[in-house]
Design a protein that fits this description.
The complex is a heterodimer of chains A (115) and B (115). Chain A is mostly beta strands and 115 residues long. Helix content of chain A is 0%, strand content 58%. Chain A has no helices and eleven strands. The radius of gyration of chain A is 14 Å and the shape is globular. In chain B, a hairpin with a 5-residue loop joins β7 and β8 (73-78). In chain B, strands 2, 4, 5, 6, 9, 10 and 11 form a seven-stranded mixed β-sheet that branches. A four-stranded antiparallel β-sheet of chain B has the order 1-3-8-7, with no helix packed on it. Chain B has strands at 4-7, 10-13, 19-25, 31-37, 44-50, 53-56, 64-67, 73-78, 87-94, 105-106, 110-114. The interface between A and B is medium-sized, with 27 and 30 residues.
Chain lengths: 115, 115
Protein backbone atom coordinates (compact mmCIF):
# COMPACT_ATOMS: atom_id res chain seq x y z
CA UNK A 1 0.00 0.00 0.00
CA UNK A 2 1.11 3.52 -0.68
CA UNK A 3 1.57 6.10 2.06
CA UNK A 4 2.98 9.54 2.75
CA UNK A 5 4.54 10.98 5.88
CA UNK A 6 4.63 14.69 6.57
CA UNK A 7 7.23 15.71 9.10
CA UNK A 8 6.07 18.50 11.35
CA UNK A 9 2.38 19.15 12.00
CA UNK A 10 3.09 22.85 12.52
CA UNK A 11 5.67 25.06 10.84
CA UNK A 12 6.13 28.74 11.62
CA UNK A 13 8.16 31.11 9.45
CA UNK A 14 8.61 34.84 9.25
CA UNK A 15 7.24 36.75 6.31
CA UNK A 16 9.90 36.76 3.60
CA UNK A 17 11.63 33.63 4.89
CA UNK A 18 12.05 30.33 3.10
CA UNK A 19 9.20 27.85 3.42
CA UNK A 20 10.09 24.14 3.55
CA UNK A 21 7.40 21.54 4.15
CA UNK A 22 8.57 17.96 4.19
CA UNK A 23 6.93 14.92 2.64
CA UNK A 24 8.24 11.38 2.26
CA UNK A 25 6.38 8.68 0.41
CA UNK A 26 6.26 4.93 0.27
CA UNK A 27 5.21 3.24 -2.94
CA UNK A 28 5.95 -0.04 -4.67
CA UNK A 29 5.39 1.52 -8.10
CA UNK A 30 6.43 4.89 -9.56
CA UNK A 31 4.22 7.31 -7.69
CA UNK A 32 2.07 10.21 -8.67
CA UNK A 33 2.57 12.86 -5.98
CA UNK A 34 0.55 15.91 -5.09
CA UNK A 35 0.48 18.88 -2.78
CA UNK A 36 -2.90 20.31 -1.84
CA UNK A 37 -3.56 23.45 0.22
CA UNK A 38 -6.54 24.10 2.47
CA UNK A 39 -7.28 27.68 3.49
CA UNK A 40 -9.57 28.25 6.49
CA UNK A 41 -13.18 27.33 5.79
CA UNK A 42 -12.38 26.23 2.26
CA UNK A 43 -11.93 22.94 0.44
CA UNK A 44 -8.60 21.52 -0.63
CA UNK A 45 -7.13 22.87 -3.83
CA UNK A 46 -4.27 21.52 -5.92
CA UNK A 47 -0.94 23.35 -5.60
CA UNK A 48 1.11 21.10 -7.86
CA UNK A 49 1.62 17.52 -8.92
CA UNK A 50 4.36 15.22 -10.14
CA UNK A 51 3.54 12.53 -12.66
CA UNK A 52 6.53 11.82 -14.89
CA UNK A 53 9.32 13.79 -16.53
CA UNK A 54 10.88 16.85 -14.92
CA UNK A 55 11.49 16.25 -11.24
CA UNK A 56 11.17 19.91 -10.27
CA UNK A 57 7.53 20.88 -10.40
CA UNK A 58 6.27 24.43 -10.19
CA UNK A 59 2.86 25.20 -8.81
CA UNK A 60 0.57 28.10 -8.14
CA UNK A 61 1.45 31.05 -5.87
CA UNK A 62 5.22 30.55 -6.16
CA UNK A 63 5.48 27.07 -4.63
CA UNK A 64 7.56 24.30 -6.09
CA UNK A 65 8.46 20.74 -5.16
CA UNK A 66 11.21 18.36 -6.20
CA UNK A 67 10.73 14.63 -6.64
CA UNK A 68 13.78 12.78 -5.31
CA UNK A 69 13.46 9.06 -5.92
CA UNK A 70 16.65 8.20 -4.03
CA UNK A 71 15.31 9.93 -0.93
CA UNK A 72 11.64 9.00 -1.52
CA UNK A 73 10.85 12.65 -0.90
CA UNK A 74 8.66 15.36 -2.39
CA UNK A 75 9.32 18.42 -0.25
CA UNK A 76 7.44 21.66 -0.89
CA UNK A 77 9.33 24.95 -0.94
CA UNK A 78 8.76 28.65 -1.50
CA UNK A 79 11.63 31.14 -1.44
CA UNK A 80 9.76 33.91 0.34
CA UNK A 81 6.72 33.41 2.56
CA UNK A 82 3.76 35.73 2.42
CA UNK A 83 1.08 36.20 5.03
CA UNK A 84 -1.46 34.80 2.58
CA UNK A 85 0.39 31.46 2.56
CA UNK A 86 -0.91 30.65 6.03
CA UNK A 87 -2.92 27.47 5.55
CA UNK A 88 -2.80 23.70 5.96
CA UNK A 89 -0.79 21.79 3.38
CA UNK A 90 -1.36 18.15 2.50
CA UNK A 91 0.97 15.86 0.61
CA UNK A 92 -0.72 12.97 -1.20
CA UNK A 93 0.11 9.95 -3.34
CA UNK A 94 -2.23 8.57 -5.96
CA UNK A 95 -3.24 5.01 -6.56
CA UNK A 96 -4.76 4.21 -9.91
CA UNK A 97 -7.93 2.24 -9.56
CA UNK A 98 -8.48 2.13 -13.27
CA UNK A 99 -11.26 4.66 -13.28
CA UNK A 100 -10.35 7.10 -10.53
CA UNK A 101 -7.50 8.96 -8.90
CA UNK A 102 -7.62 7.69 -5.32
CA UNK A 103 -5.50 9.86 -3.07
CA UNK A 104 -3.78 8.80 0.14
CA UNK A 105 -3.08 11.92 2.15
CA UNK A 106 -0.56 12.77 4.80
CA UNK A 107 -1.72 14.20 8.10
CA UNK A 108 -1.02 17.76 6.98
CA UNK A 109 1.27 20.60 8.02
CA UNK A 110 -0.18 23.83 9.28
CA UNK A 111 1.92 26.77 8.09
CA UNK A 112 1.95 29.91 10.20
CA UNK A 113 3.50 33.10 8.79
CA UNK A 114 4.48 35.80 11.24
CA UNK A 115 5.47 39.42 10.75
CA UNK B 1 -18.33 30.33 -9.44
CA UNK B 2 -18.48 27.44 -6.97
CA UNK B 3 -17.86 24.18 -8.78
CA UNK B 4 -18.31 21.61 -6.00
CA UNK B 5 -20.92 22.60 -3.48
CA UNK B 6 -21.56 20.89 -0.19
CA UNK B 7 -24.57 21.50 2.00
CA UNK B 8 -24.89 22.18 4.78
CA UNK B 9 -21.59 23.66 5.97
CA UNK B 10 -22.33 22.51 9.51
CA UNK B 11 -24.60 19.63 10.48
CA UNK B 12 -25.55 18.57 13.96
CA UNK B 13 -27.26 15.24 14.55
CA UNK B 14 -28.10 13.06 17.48
CA UNK B 15 -26.48 9.76 18.31
CA UNK B 16 -28.16 7.08 16.21
CA UNK B 17 -30.27 9.49 14.14
CA UNK B 18 -29.78 9.05 10.38
CA UNK B 19 -28.22 11.98 8.58
CA UNK B 20 -27.62 12.82 4.93
CA UNK B 21 -24.95 15.09 3.54
CA UNK B 22 -25.20 16.42 0.01
CA UNK B 23 -22.78 17.35 -2.72
CA UNK B 24 -23.39 18.85 -6.14
CA UNK B 25 -21.05 19.75 -8.98
CA UNK B 26 -21.17 21.93 -12.08
CA UNK B 27 -18.05 20.42 -13.69
CA UNK B 28 -19.78 17.46 -15.33
CA UNK B 29 -17.08 15.17 -13.95
CA UNK B 30 -17.83 11.49 -14.03
CA UNK B 31 -15.97 10.59 -10.83
CA UNK B 32 -17.13 11.72 -7.39
CA UNK B 33 -15.47 10.92 -4.06
CA UNK B 34 -16.31 11.15 -0.37
CA UNK B 35 -13.52 11.67 2.13
CA UNK B 36 -13.74 11.71 5.92
CA UNK B 37 -11.36 14.03 7.77
CA UNK B 38 -11.19 13.78 11.55
CA UNK B 39 -9.49 16.45 13.59
CA UNK B 40 -5.71 16.52 13.04
CA UNK B 41 -5.87 13.46 10.78
CA UNK B 42 -5.44 12.88 7.08
CA UNK B 43 -8.52 12.87 4.85
CA UNK B 44 -9.54 9.24 4.37
CA UNK B 45 -11.34 7.97 1.28
CA UNK B 46 -14.67 6.32 2.07
CA UNK B 47 -15.86 5.51 -1.47
CA UNK B 48 -16.12 6.85 -4.97
CA UNK B 49 -18.45 6.70 -7.93
CA UNK B 50 -17.45 6.28 -11.52
CA UNK B 51 -20.64 7.39 -13.21
CA UNK B 52 -23.19 5.20 -11.44
CA UNK B 53 -20.70 2.50 -10.48
CA UNK B 54 -20.15 2.52 -6.72
CA UNK B 55 -16.69 1.63 -5.36
CA UNK B 56 -16.43 1.09 -1.62
CA UNK B 57 -13.13 1.14 0.27
CA UNK B 58 -12.51 -2.12 2.10
CA UNK B 59 -12.40 -0.51 5.53
CA UNK B 60 -15.41 1.79 5.17
CA UNK B 61 -18.00 0.81 7.81
CA UNK B 62 -21.39 -0.46 6.64
CA UNK B 63 -22.92 2.46 8.51
CA UNK B 64 -21.87 4.68 5.61
CA UNK B 65 -23.86 4.54 2.39
CA UNK B 66 -23.97 6.69 -0.71
CA UNK B 67 -26.30 7.53 -3.56
CA UNK B 68 -25.67 9.21 -6.88
CA UNK B 69 -28.98 9.82 -8.64
CA UNK B 70 -27.39 11.72 -11.53
CA UNK B 71 -24.05 13.17 -12.68
CA UNK B 72 -24.44 16.36 -10.66
CA UNK B 73 -25.45 15.08 -7.25
CA UNK B 74 -24.03 12.68 -4.70
CA UNK B 75 -25.23 11.98 -1.16
CA UNK B 76 -23.56 10.51 1.88
CA UNK B 77 -25.92 8.71 4.26
CA UNK B 78 -24.88 7.78 7.77
CA UNK B 79 -27.47 5.31 8.99
CA UNK B 80 -26.74 5.40 12.72
CA UNK B 81 -24.16 8.04 13.56
CA UNK B 82 -21.89 7.37 16.49
CA UNK B 83 -19.73 9.81 18.39
CA UNK B 84 -16.75 8.56 16.41
CA UNK B 85 -18.35 9.71 13.16
CA UNK B 86 -17.98 13.37 14.06
CA UNK B 87 -15.69 14.74 11.37
CA UNK B 88 -15.39 16.94 8.31
CA UNK B 89 -16.80 15.21 5.24
CA UNK B 90 -15.26 16.28 1.96
CA UNK B 91 -16.74 15.71 -1.47
CA UNK B 92 -14.50 15.83 -4.51
CA UNK B 93 -14.75 15.28 -8.25
CA UNK B 94 -12.40 14.47 -11.09
CA UNK B 95 -12.41 13.59 -14.75
CA UNK B 96 -11.65 10.02 -15.65
CA UNK B 97 -8.61 9.56 -17.83
CA UNK B 98 -7.61 6.17 -16.46
CA UNK B 99 -4.21 7.64 -15.55
CA UNK B 100 -4.69 8.01 -11.81
CA UNK B 101 -3.09 11.43 -11.77
CA UNK B 102 -6.05 13.69 -12.22
CA UNK B 103 -6.64 16.86 -10.24
CA UNK B 104 -9.38 16.56 -7.66
CA UNK B 105 -11.79 19.43 -7.13
CA UNK B 106 -13.00 19.64 -3.55
CA UNK B 107 -16.01 21.20 -1.94
CA UNK B 108 -15.68 23.22 1.26
CA UNK B 109 -16.81 20.29 3.34
CA UNK B 110 -19.56 19.58 5.86
CA UNK B 111 -18.57 19.56 9.51
CA UNK B 112 -20.67 16.90 11.25
CA UNK B 113 -21.23 16.97 14.99
CA UNK B 114 -22.87 14.08 16.82
CA UNK B 115 -24.50 14.81 20.18
Amino acid sequence: AQSVTQLGSHVSVSEGALVLLRCNYSSSVPPYLFWYVQYPNQGLQLLLKYTTGATLVKGITGFEAEFKKSETSFHLTKPSAHMSDAAEYFCAVSETSGTASKLTFGTGTRLQVTL
Amino acid sequence: DAMVIQNPRYQVTQFGKPVTLSCSQTLNHNVMYWYQQKSSQAPKLLFHYYDKDFNNEADTPDNFQSRRPNTSFCFLDIRSPGLGDAAMYLCATSRDTGMGNEKLFFGSGTQLSVL
